[in-house]
């Protein structure tokens, strides 16, 4: 096997640049001579190239983009390569920055040719709810999917946004395989199980590594809110990436969140991170709707024996200590995993089972907490 390309060594960069210089645009110039190369990133066999593209010219560059990806993947040691079309937004009129606000992202990594909505994002959504966790591996995405399905089963119009740019999982969990349509330069959300959904995973191959730095991640997140035709929604559930980083701050600053749901497992290590998540939302003045204890009790599928593999009751005690609501326990069941892998949320597949009832109860509690926001006209947020 060829040695993977290292990061930013002169030899590896020269090999990538040679591929770019060999490509030709209409008019016979190469991307370097035309000033299109916006950035090159090489790491552990992964190559990412960003090409600057004006919105009106993005479609004409698509053959070049696809051809460069093919050529880069043929370089010795390259595991995968992605070529992205980016654009820099015109600067908005000067305005006084909000205290502590992050600078606006300049990159628009999804080449739609459109433009994110000016002013407020998601004006036709009554309530935006973030489903977050302080750490990965606690079942946050599974909880977000089933929460969205549960809210839809209550008769609400619901959207589901996958904000985990580096690790999108919602397409697999919802059974979505096709790419979304673009109409009037806006992405159309996919619909499954009564929920409108959008994820960066619908726009790239699921085997591709999203090797993006902060500005591109923030630009993609804003596009998934502003360049997607969500329509009128009662609730938009946002599956956040784990942790308390840029994505969480961007969402809290760009969108008036109606609340956050924190997902944790019962053991102390996970609860430490859940505590940080609660603290972050408190600092950004986002109401914490409550904490969910996921993987609360393991139920043996053969004999029905119940075992507390990760302890039990830790999230309830933590919620009491922090003064936030406790939203319930989700058991650790094989059905939850198998239905998620098959693309059918367990609440849709088996609503009367133990897991289905637990998720339905969670959705009812969240809907009750959102009642003040849902009673307001669209465009007026709590």
TrEMBL record:
**Superkingdom of origin:** Bacteria
Q: Which GO terms describe its molecular function?
A: ATP binding
Q: Which UniProt keywords are listed? A: ATP-binding, Hydrolase, Iron, Iron-sulfur, Metal-binding, Nucleotide-binding
PROSITE patterns reported for this sequence: MRP
- Keyword Membrane assigned to the entry: answer is no
- What region holds the MIP18 family-like domain? 13-83
Gene3D superfamilies (alphabetical):
P-loop containing nucleotide triphosphate hydrolases (3.40.50.300)
Q: How does it assemble?
A: Homodimer.
Specify the protein name: Iron-sulfur cluster carrier protein
The record lists the organism as Rhizosaccharibacter radicis
